[in-house]
Amino acid sequence: MTTDYKKQPHHEFLSASQEALGKASLQIALSRLTDTLAAGNRSAFSALPDSDLLREKARSIKDHTLASLDTYLEQLSDSVISKGGQVHWAKDAQDVRNIILDIAQKKQVQRIVKSKSMTTEEIHLNDALENANLEVIETDFGEYILQLAKERPSHLVAPAVHKTREEIADLLESELKIPVTPEPEAMAKLARNQLRKQFQKADMGITGVNFAVAETGTIVLVSNEGNARLTATIPRIHVAVMGIEKVIPALKDLPVFIKLLARAATGQKISVYTSLVTGPRRTEEHVGPQEFHLVIMDNGRTDILGSPMRESLFCIRCGACLNACPIYRNVGGHAYGGTYSGPIGAVLTPLYDNLEDHHHLPHASSLCGSCQAACPVKIAIPELLVRLRASLNRQKLTPFVERLIYQTWAHTMVRPGLYRLASSFAGWLMRLGASGNWLTKMPGPIKGWTQTRDFRTPPKQSFRNWWKKQKNIRF
Amino acid sequence: MITCLADVLRPNVGKATVALLEHFGATVHFPEQQTCCGQPFFNSGVEKQTQQLAKHTIEVFADGRPVVTPSGSCAAMIRAEYPHVFSSSSPWHTRATELAGRTFELAEFLVHQLGVTKVDAQYDGTITYHPACHLRALQADNAVEQLLDQIKGTQCIPLRKSDQCCGFGGSFSVRYPEISGAMVIDKVSCIEETQADTVISTDTGCLMNIEGCLHRNNSKTQTMHFAELLATGLNLI
User: Does domain A5-303 bear CATH number 3.40.50.720?
Assistant: First the structure.
C-alpha cells in the first residue's frame, strides 16, 4: 500500500462494479444493509416532528458557517487554546501525517489507539504511523475487523458492511486464534475483550471530529460503541483530526445536528455515546488526557468552498445516501475506488483526488434523487453529479466519439424535419432487425440494454403522423 | 408536449393524453415543431446542446398557453432546470422561467388545474403503480394516485420498494448496463410479487425499461402509461 493517495494505481470502476455484482456474499451483505439502515432512516424521519424544518435549519447553519469559515476556524482555535489544548493547521494529507508523527516522536509515543475516522482514512494515516514503527489499533469493531483483514472501509458508518457475519467470524478465528460463532453478540464480546486492554496500554488516542464548536472549543464525538470516548480519555495524549468544514458556530447549533445524525445514519434517535470534549484534563481533574491536540485540515476543501460544488461541504458523514442508493446497494463501497463511497463519495472523490482518474463516478448514477431525499442536510447530490459531468465535458475528458454523438444528436433534434427523418429511419432499421415486435440484441454502444431486457420496436406510425392524419379529418 | 419518447416509441400515450384533455374540457394544440425537452443532454452535462434544445422548446411553446406533458421527467426538466440552463442575465432565462411557470405533468394538470376530482371510469383488473423518480421529486402530493383510486373495477396492489429507481436513468442504462440491469431485475421481481395484470407509470422511459425486462422474463404482466389506463377506462381510446 502506498502512502501517497495520488499515486494509487488507477481504479477501474467498470470492472470493479461488474465483479461486485457477481459476488454473492457481497450482495447478501449489502441487501441486509438496505433493509435495516435505509428503512431506519425513513421511519425515524417520518416519526420526527418537523423533520423537514430541522433539516432546513441544519442546512442554514452549515451555509452560514461556510460563508464565514475563516472567522469560525479562528474562533475555534482561540477557544481550544484557551481551554488548554493545542491547535495545528494542516494544508494537506502529508502535513497532517507529519504533525502527528512529530507529536508522537516528541512525546515518546509507541502505541496508538484510534476510533473510527474517515478523515484519517482519507489521508492514509495508519500507513504512515506503521511505517514509523508505531503500533496502531483500530478500536471501532468494524475498523478492527478491517485492520485484521487489511482492507479499507466500504461505508461511511458501517465500515465492514461488505462482509457477512460468517466471513467476519472466520476472519476473527484465523487472526486471533480464538474460536467464535458467527453471532453478532459473541463476536462483539470477543472484540471488546481484545480491545479493552489496548486502551490502557496506549500512549496516544486519535479520533476524528463529528462537530467542532467554535464558541467553546468543544469537539463532539458520536459513536455506538463508546470506543471514541475511551480513545479520547484514557491515553495521555488525545489527537483529534478534522476537516475544516466540521466547525459549527456555537453550542446552541449542536442539538439540531444531534437530532438528525443518528436518525439519518441508522434510524436511532441518538447514538449510544455522544461525547463533548473540551481541552485536556484540568489541573484539578484525575481523568482525561494530559494533552489535547486539534489538527485542522484543508486537503482540498477550500478549493471546493469557492466553487459551485460548495454544497458538498454540508455533509455530516451520516451515510444515509449510501443506504438509499440503488447503485451503492448493487456494487458496494470498494467499487467506487476512493475513501468515500456512495453518492457523496461520487462527488467528493473526484474533488479531493482528481476528476480524470474517477471519470466514471459522476456518471454511475441514474439521478433518481433517493440520496437527496435521505440526506439530513438535503444536499442536492444529483445536481452536483450533473455539474461534475459538465466539468468532464468542459475539460474534454469525455471520449471524442461521445461528444460527437451528442453534438450530432442535438443538431438533429433542433431541426424538426431532420428529427422526423432520423426517427423514421431508426424505427425502420429496428423493425428490420427484430423478431415480431421485439429486439433481443442491440448493436454497438447500446448493446448493454439487451443483456437483461428486450426492446419493443417503434410502431410504424408515430404520434405526430397520427396527429397530422386525424387533424385533416377533424378540421 | 408529447415527448420524444412517446412520439416515437409509444404514440398511444400521446393519443390518450389528447383524448383525456379534450374529455375534461381543454382544447388541445400540438405545435408540430416540437422535438425534445433536452433532458438527456442536460443529464450528460453537455451544456451547449442543452441550451440549443431549451431554446428550441421555448420557441415552439412561446404562445403562452399551459404546456401539458405525459412525463414527470420532461415536466421536471422544464420546471426545475430550464431557468438554470441560461445565465440569469440572459433574456432566455426570463423566457425559460416564464415557460416553467406554465408547464405541467398530465395528472397534476388534470387534478390541480382542471380541478378533476371525480372520474367515471371502469377498468377491470389488478394493477400496481411504479412512481417515476422525477415525478416524485416534482410534486408533494400524488395526483396520479388520486386519479387511479377513482377507477372502478381496478384493484391497486401496493408495490414493495416502490420508490426505488427502475434503473433506466437515460444514458445510465447503456453506460452501466450491468448495474441498470440489476436494478430493473429488482424492480420487476417486486412487480411480479404483486401478481398484478398491469404495471402503471407516468414515464415512457420507465415503461420501456420495465416492459423490456418483463418481456425477457416471459412475464404475463403488461405495462401501461397512466394516461392509457385512464383513457381506456373512460372509453376514450
Answer: no
